[in-house]
Amino acid sequence: MRIAVDGMGGDNAPAEIVRGCVEAGKLTKHEILIVGDEEKIRAELAGYKYDQEQIRVVHAAEVITGDDAPVRAVRTKTDSSLVKGIGLVKNGEADMLLSAGNTGAIMAGGLFILGRIPGIDRPAIASTYPILGSGFTLLVDSGANAECKPRNLLEFATMGSIYMEKVFGLEKPKVGLVNIGTEEGKGTTVIKSAYDLLKKSHLNFVGNVEAREVPAGVCDVTVCDGFVGNTILKLTEGVAWSILRLMKQKFTDGVVPKMGALLLSGKLSEMKQEFDYSSYGGAPILGVKGALIKIHGSSNADAVKNGILKAIPYVENKVVQIIQESVLELEEIEESE
């Protein structure tokens, strides 16, 4: 397998991207292609011992930044690390691309270069959402589609279920639809129609879930439109880090609290790790004809390493092909309405 990595995408590129690739290379035998400014990437690689046959550099002269307009950037910056990396997947020169770059540009590149899976109307971003205690739920969509049709939500549920089953080995993952109440008749017209479609599907649909239930792990795949999903993610992130900052402040306010913090340091570290996005890998762009993985823009080397390693089963278990095969069933469900 050949794994392409956008060497210039994200806040910490290329230093942390390169270090993450080197660390991943020690844990897998797969080939890693770092795409980007060859001079800068080789300067970073010079500080490490690595297998030069395993980790290679593919030169790209341009960079798509977070300030670039996504569609325009993809169309005009054809020699950028992101566009060139997606092109490698399109041409079969790489089996997947991992990027910490501009989310909109990654989505646009996936659509324009790889194309949608026939029958999938809207590709979606599938993000991992930590569950209190252990594990995570897959939040689909987490930002790609602000407005959706009922059919789109069925697509998200199907693609998310396949991903959880094939990548994480979870048999018959529980699917929940985000709503303002758990009763079947709750929600907008779109949500009510989506509920009916999900109930008729082959999925393990457990019904409506309220946002407050998501962190408790009531379902394995949490389905919503991208506006709601992105709001859930960012609100949770803000609350989590605010709590951690408050705890740090309280535990350092005086001698006695500091002693208590010392005794509880192990548990506090465990708690912080539960909110750490880097341990769960990246967010796949589900619904495009190729393996495209988005990692957090501020990803460090550890996040890059985990993103690479946890994306490998996505390719090995042929998730894209299985989604393609599942589209026919979606059409049958919709036609029965």
CATH topology of the largest domain: Isopropylmalate Dehydrogenase
The overall strand count is: 11
Regarding CATH, which class of the largest domain?
Alpha Beta
- What is the tally of helical segments? 12
Overall tally of structural domains: 2
The CATH architecture name of the largest domain reads 3-Layer(aba) Sandwich
Write the layout of secondary structure elements.
Blueprint: E1 2-6, H1 15-25, E2 31-36, H2 38-45, E3 55-59, H3 70-76, H4 81-90, E4 96-99, H5 103-114, E5 124-130, E6 136-140, H6 150-168, E7 174-178, H7 189-200, E8 204-209, E9 221-223, H8 226-251, H9 255-263, H10 265-274, E10 283-286, E11 291-294, H11 301-316, H12 319-335
Helix pairs in contact: 1-11, 3-5, 4-5, 6-7, 6-11, 6-12
